[in-house]
Amino acid sequence: MRIGDRVLDFPTVMGVLNVTPDSFSDGGKFLGRDAALRQAEALLAAGAGILDIGGESTRPGARPVSAAQELERVIPLLEALQGLADVPLSVDTSKPEVMRSAVAAGASMINDVRALREEGALETVAELGVSVCLMHMLGEPRSMQHKPVYKDVTQEVAAFLGERLECCHNVGIEADRVLLDPGFGFGKTHAHNIELLANLRALRRLGRPLLVGLSRKSTLGALTGRDPADRVAASVAAAVIAAMNGADIIRAHDVAETVDALRVVAACMHSGSSL
Ligand code: 7PJ
Q1: Which residue segments constitute the domains of the chain, with CATH numbers given?
Q2: Is 12 helix (H, G, I), strand (E, B) or coil?
Q3: Which of 14, 25, 29, 135 to mutate to test the pocket of ligand 1 (most atoms within 8 A of CB)?
Q4: Contact between residue 76 and residue 34 where contact means Cβ atoms under 8 Å apart
Q5: Residue 124 in 3-state DSSP?
Q6: How far is the CA of 45 from the centre of ligand 1 (A)?
Q7: 217 assigned to active site
Q8: Collapsed DSSP state (helix, strand, coil) of residue 169
Q9: Predicted confidence pLDDT, tens digits, the chain (275 residues)
């Protein structure tokens, strides 16, 4: 798939760069521009094929931030990364205003956990001509973990993503610019997350590349009893399962470990085996 002017080999690792004071596993660590730049360099050296820059924390219970705050966090970093990063830069935002400024500052992909449901977001992405990741979320970050209920989580996530893909088509966003993401942890219980991971292949029927973010998430904490920074092995296991079940892009904090693991998966996939 092409993102911006780059063609990506799959599976690719998207390195997470949160410039927020409150993200659950790295909040506050990379707030200053220099610290964020050093982290970006480390993610690139570790083999990240995309960087995902976020100025809004979407952790469960997180409060909304203003566009001005997001812009202040994200734009200086994007500007500093131009020329430095030879990979596509993605911006994690739902706000049309932030999308516009981010693309002007060098972003070639929008990663929207609200799947372009904010007013004007669909039209903005159509006009900007960039790639977009549509993610499934039940509810809003403030309330999404209050007893989410599904009859069939995989089926309902697939139906939602199919509808959003159609909305993109209707405003002129070509399908080949769209990635889909089931949104692990966004309005889902641990059981829902595991069911989705095990059934990920069903989402391939939508015909678009899949992006998966399970890195350090609480389902892995529930399974291992470990704090976020100690969930590396569990995150790598989840990444391997996702890639074997058809994920194309893995969003990860621990990029070097994930890149190594995915090299093994890719070697098996390209060997002509049934993987
Ligand atoms: C995801 C995301 C995810 C996409 C976050 C964290 C929580 N974007 N943004 N998919 N998670 N597309 O940093 O782990 O799963 S925020």
Answers
A1: 10-267 (3.20.20.20)
A2: strand
A3: 135
A4: no
A5: helix
A6: 21
A7: yes
A8: helix
A9: 889 888 888 899 999 998 887 655 565 555 677 889 999 999 999 999 999 999 988 878 888 899 999 999 999 999 999 888 899 999 999 999 999 999 999 999 999 999 999 999 999 999 999 999 999 999 888 887 888 999 999 999 999 999 999 999 999 999 999 999 999 999 999 999 999 999 999 999 999 999 999 999 999 999 999 999 999 999 999 999 999 999 999 999 999 999 999 999 999 988 876 66
